[in-house]
Amino acid sequence: MNKPLAALAVLGALTLALAGCGTTSVEEPTSSNAPAAASDECKDVKTSSDPVTLTDAFGRTVELDKPAERVAVLEWQQIEDALTLCVTPVAVADAKGYSTWDTAEELPEGVKDVGTRQEPNLDAIFATKPDLVIVEAYTRDDAIIAQLEKYGVPVLATLGADAKDPIAQMLSTFDLIAQATGRGERADEVTAEFEKHLADAKAEVKDAEPAVTDFVFFDGWVDGGNVSLRPFGQGSLIGELGEELGLTNAWTGEVDPAYGLGQTDVEGMTTIGDASLFYTGTTDPDSESFVDAAKQNPAWASIPAVKEDRTFAFPGGIWTFGGPRSAEQIIDAYVDAIKG
Q1: pLDDT tens digit sequence for 201-219
Q2: Per the database record, which ranges form the Fe/B12 periplasmic-binding domain (predicted)?
């Protein structure tokens, strides 16, 4: 299950639980660390060989004799970040889900899938002999940290999200992984590329002079015929990127303090005025189309953006909780929608 739908039922109560280990037969790893997808930009990436001492998102000190080469990664943003840094993980959680929801970086073949993000298999993880496990947590005493540390392998804990400054938080997570893997120079290059991408897109939006600058981005799901919609409000990464482009996020309802996510139904969307509607174009294999279901509700047709054909599906495979490369995809989707 993807992060958006997993979080819906428990807004503000974001937890990650680990299942018991059991015994699992796991193939021995066949390679150590390789450039992500053998892309040209990864061929000459410089890697430090110095010992690493860093402070993770929860004030924990992580010490490595040398930058991590064999990393296991248990959340999709961090998988993407590792690949952007030209680090191919030896193990990841939910590889199939990643490839569906996050197309910013392609996961090479041969990476070991160690189960779901909610219940990764610890035996499978450590059979790949990682020298670092990268996790996403929400508190310093998150159970995932303590359970992984029992195996004696360093654990880098990153913060899931922070609605106070989602763009800075996204870049902070990226930088932490770069420090741990000795890819600081690569991280600086990617961050500079992201910032230029954002600035150039902002100029494009301004030049386009859109008639409507208010927007609401949302995703959703269908359960028992009922349509639930989730607006990305103030403090959401995708909402903040839209505002950085010069747009105005029109969702003013209550949102959670981590991801900036709200919750409503079709009728709730009638309160957003003239705002354009943007929504995820990724097809959820576990749910029917929430947009098609919403269209069956008469209230949907009464929304100004629907009447005026100002509803836009972003391309599929854009992870709304991703790293710099996903953020660039989001920026491009905004520009394409605005320019028509």
Answers
A1: 999 999 999 999 999 999 9
A2: 70-340
User: For the purposes of burial, counting CB atoms within 10 Å of the CB of 53, is it exposed (0-12), middle (13-18) or buried (19 or more)?
Assistant: exposed
User: Using DSSP, how many helices (H) and how many strands (E) does the chain show?
Assistant: 12, 12
pTM of this structure: 0.90
Long-range contacts of 246-250 (CB under 8 A, 24+ apart): 246/202, 246/205, 246/206, 246/213, 247/205, 247/210, 247/213, 247/214, 247/215, 247/334, 248/213, 248/214, 248/215, 249/214, 249/215, 249/216, 249/217, 250/214, 250/215, 250/216, 250/275
Taking CA 249 as the corner, what is the angle to CA 245 and CA 252, rounded to the nearest 5 degrees? 160
* The token pair that represents 325 in the structure block: 């490369």
State phi, psi for 216 to the nearest 5 degrees.
-135, 125
Answer CATH for 44-190 from 1.10.1060.10, 1.20.1250.20, 3.40.50.1980, 3.30.43.10: 3.40.50.1980
Is the pLDDT at 21 greater than 90? The verdict is no
62-110 pLDDT, tens digit each = 999 999 999 999 999 999 999 999 999 999 999 999 999 999 999 999 9
Q: How far is CA 76 from the centre of its chain?
A: 6
Beta bridge partners of 248: 214
C-beta contacts of 140-146 below 8 A and 24+ residues apart: 140/58, 140/59, 140/60, 142/15, 142/16, 143/16, 143/17, 143/18, 144/16, 144/17, 144/18, 144/74, 145/58, 145/60
Question: How far is Cα 308 from Cα 97, in angstroms, rounded to an integer?
Answer: 35
Contacts 24+ apart (CB under 8 A), 93-97: 93/117, 93/120, 97/1, 97/2
pLDDT digits (tens, 9 = 90+) for 211-247: 999 999 999 999 988 999 999 999 999 999 999 999 9
Class of domain 210-339: alpha beta
Question: Residue 299 — φ and ψ, nearest 5°?
Answer: -65, -30
CB 198 within 8 A of CB 331: yes
